[in-house]
Amino acid sequence: TDFEGSSDVGVFATLTNKYCLVAIGGSENFYSVFEGELEEIPVIHTSIAGIRSIGRMTAANSHGLIVPSNTTDQELQHLVNSLPDGVVVQRVEERLSALGNIIACNDYCALVHPDLDRETEEVIADTL
What we know:
Layout: E1 13-15, E2 20-23, H1 28-37, E3 43-46, H2 54-57, E4 59-60, E5 64-68, H3 73-82, E6 88-92, H4 99-102, E7 103-105, E8 110-112, H5 118-127
């Protein structure tokens, strides 16, 4: 599966046990692979901060989703309306805004970049 000629699927998608985010603007084939394999969970088409590299921009697990502060109000509302009940969405003010590149997490722990702001670490602990 590729997205506009790139095989870096993780750049254009974020997957948890409860939901999947995929970038808008992909081919029908790109979406059909996700929707076919993930029949039991919602596959949400979105952008983050107006860009399609949502895997790089988000950190997520089945409890929550963290997005950068430049995520638009419209994108944030779309996510809140589309995600399963109980999934918390939180915007963070962080100079290292490619959150998916600096936070590795699952439902039990998170590993973060050492230069992450203390406030962001607290949001991660509370949200994820």
